[in-house]
Write the structure tokens for this entry.
Amino acid sequence: MYCKNCGQKLTLRFCENEGLVPYCDTCADYMFPLFPVAVSMVVTNRAQDKILLAKHVEDDDFILFAGYIKKGENAEKTIPREIKEELGMNVVKTKFMSTRFHAKKDLLMLNFIVVVEDTPIKLKTDEIAEARWCTHDQALELIRKNTTAEFFLTNAVKELKKKI
Ligand SMILES: [Zn+2]
């Protein structure tokens, strides 16, 4: 790991209440690791009995819709922006569920249930090959297993049984 300010190789130094933190000797400062934050979205219809799964280009499994939170943006803005960009749909309401650190991509994911208007999908085809409406059970079957997406989906389905 290198300092983002001066390029010096970082060492680990003890920091009170934080444990070992990367430290730059040149800048004489701790360099707390930065990581991106993204929203993960369990997209559902108004009746909340269907879930929309995404299949990316060059991918066999289905996953949830997701998008990076832009610098300066809050998650509440990211959701309608991403849903509009990827699906051409409007968001009716959202419910925050939980967060999980996605170690594989070094990324914090914030999961929401997102209710969308019942309008046709206008898919952004350069990123997503297919978007498929599924019943709760089908979605649980199709989602890529042992993933953060599966964890979020399982919790969301429990919540959707009661409706949000
Ligand atoms: Zn430095």
